[in-house]
Please model this.
Amino acid sequence: MPQNTQTNRQIVLAQRPKGAPDANTLRMDTTAIPSPGPGQMLLRTVFLSLDPYMRGRMNDAKSYATPVAIGGVMTGQVVAEVMVSNLDAFAPGDHVLAGSGWQDYALSDGVEVLNLGPAPARASWSLGVMGMPGYTAYAGLLKIGAPKVGETVVVAAASGPVGATVGQIAKLKGARAVGIAGGGAKCKHVVEVLGFDACIDHTAPDFVDQLRAACPAGIDVYFENVGGKVLYAVLPLLNAFARMPVCGVASWYNLPGLPDGPDMGPAIMGTILRMKVKVQGFIIFDSFARSLYAEFVRDMTGWLEAGQMQYTEEVIDGLENAPDGLYGLLEGRSFGKRVVRV
Amino acid sequence: MPQNTQTNRQIVLAQRPKGAPDANTLRMDTTAIPSPGPGQMLLRTVFLSLDPYMRGRMNDAKSYATPVAIGGVMTGQVVAEVMVSNLDAFAPGDHVLAGSGWQDYALSDGVEVLNLGPAPARASWSLGVMGMPGYTAYAGLLKIGAPKVGETVVVAAASGPVGATVGQIAKLKGARAVGIAGGGAKCKHVVEVLGFDACIDHTAPDFVDQLRAACPAGIDVYFENVGGKVLYAVLPLLNAFARMPVCGVASWYNLPGLPDGPDMGPAIMGTILRMKVKVQGFIIFDSFARSLYAEFVRDMTGWLEAGQMQYTEEVIDGLENAPDGLYGLLEGRSFGKRVVRV
Model:
């Protein structure tokens, strides 16, 4: 059943996954389309963003955000169209950026909703390079990583929306950008289209040696979004006073528990000590002031208009295909920013 | 043979230890007392500092300082008396703070040597609360940890010269100070003499539970100097936006290799991410500008004179006892700042 005007399809958390999510994790329910009361509007979802952080919301763990409840609608940012509005700031036909989750319709009181206007060009980009992933790359790289001209910046998931933006901004700031991605096609794209200096395939048997060879002057900024073997390959290459913004550890999101040893704790902490590394975790909208967002929008708009920033989007059709779309993304099978056209 | 005017005893690195250093690691050699040339002075060692970082200098690993060579004199800070001087800024009888290592006599060109004057009161304190350990505590806590009034600061080796100073400065700044130390006698001292709010014995079987109970509002600053099980007990207690200055990982210095699993990497990095923690390694004289040192001397002198800072020193007699003194310190058997009266 596609999106229609009679019912509201919702994808809800059926059970918390142990390890990788599967067909039992999410479930589609159907309910009535709600009616907006005073001070509310009705939104119809147009695009749904798929992002690695969503795996964390399925867990019932101490974290930066409340987990999704069992039976609750999955969290997610969307671009939606206003269908009915009892709010002055929003009119029917306006498109908005909202956090209304994996469903066809939702009510909103307009709080923390951005009005994109009646006919935004490239509306879905608000979920990617012009939105949360782009801002994550911008703020984390420039405010924590702070690359200097000639320094080496390394980022994994380099064909993804965060990694691609990190490397391109690094280049714009005069740094050397080394990407890491899964497979030759992605690596080729990262170098030839995105303009990174090098991109290493983490599936190669000699990945560690290739990374070392691509960073002859060591690593000054490692933008951490994956953890795991990439982090462990980076550690011995970090230079004195290196910086490591941490926005994710995607390769570990599906772990059912701590992996087998050896314990890399001494290597992580010993490197931080000896090389005087600064490691800083950040959650984009918690960690940075709103003032920086305006600066980001200004810079990113300028770079895109000048053709200095390339952006790749992968569109999946149908809300019913969102779960598999997310699982594939978590397994590294996406290419560019993955969104669902609901 | 005690210190004498005929020969120069030197303790040199005989072989690099695998794991804990032992009787084969260091060796005493005897050489002639050197003669100062133009622009040099001859120093006689009075006090030798023993510090955990010395274990790292025995390894041939990429680090912040050149390792001690096999057959080379062990690195260390000393308080020494000027015996002969061909330098204008130093006169016979002056006492100095120098980095001349584990030996009776040394030549110096006066570079990076601090003149303490002819009869300094409490000269050995320049190796502790008024020197490198005190400055490490001061700069790391205030510039990286930056505790706010009412926040909780946790530090291990709390009866040692760094930990004791960290906790006392935390209290002076209005924070709650929770120490960790080995054994009841040290913990009693940390609370009753140093004035920490609590001190947990890490040898207790319910150490983890006790630490949690002592930090009912979580941990805002963890001053990392030990690593290991203390770090792992701290991780789940860290609050959002916690800070972790890292000046050492002493419990891991004797590891011959990575310990058995599980791999705690995902727990370390996951906590940094979720709780938006800032972790920053620092090596005191590399990481902080000289300007901060003057501020430290001013503040620390004031606190000591006002009786707001307590300091405990443990003096071992004889250069020949320095190796066992260091090994005991690495095993947690020191109490307060350990120095050798040469």
